[in-house]
Amino acid sequence: MILLIVATILLLVTMNQMKMYEDYFSIDDILSTQERIRCQLLVDIPKLGFLESSSSSTALDDEKKDQKHEQNLSSLTANTKLELPYWMIYSICNCKTRFATLPELPLIYSRIQRQIFAADATVVDLAKQAPHFYRQGRHLLELNFDEKRQVAITLLQTYQQRFRSIMDAAFHLVISNDHHHHESMKQQTGKFERQEKILLLLGQAAFRDYDRLVNNETKQMLPPKIQGMTNDLTNVLNDAMNRKRKK
Asked: Other CB atoms closer than 10 Å to residue 130's CB: what's the count?
């Protein structure tokens, strides 16, 4: 129970950290928002025929180039399905006049994939399937779609299930001297997505500090500073303790 509470606090701090520091030059934010999402137009849009995936081709002769030019000047009709990056989807789906809707979610957040996460989220290779799973999911929740609540629950439960593996890996990579054990742990950590790898480094730094503390190598256990995450976590815990003392 305590582990789940800590995991939830770290998730909230991580999400707050992403929202606080993301900007135009954030590489993680650029990578997470450039993922393509399928949308369906609700209105006709003139002179954007080149956005249709069917209009893309690498080798075109003169006749095909003429056809492509005509198609580029044509309109996109209502009910046309397109695959566009998230940053564009957000603009056309969340404006006052909605230009598009989401007929289906990205594969990693689909109903079938959510069932896999619910069964055992630790076996999913997020590094390969969704390197920015949590960040991209948080962005996705800013859109309006029917399964929004289910996706939010999946994000939280997936994090809670995988948190124990992250902390176990951090502990064994610091404490264990067995080469084979290290290799198996590295294979496991290879499935971690971006934010999970940050937490892995955070856990390793914390275990090293604890090891130095119990061996009298230091008299003070300082929180590791990894992208400012621990500062936020320390503030959250200090505020909670202060409120408890006042009561």
From this structure: 22
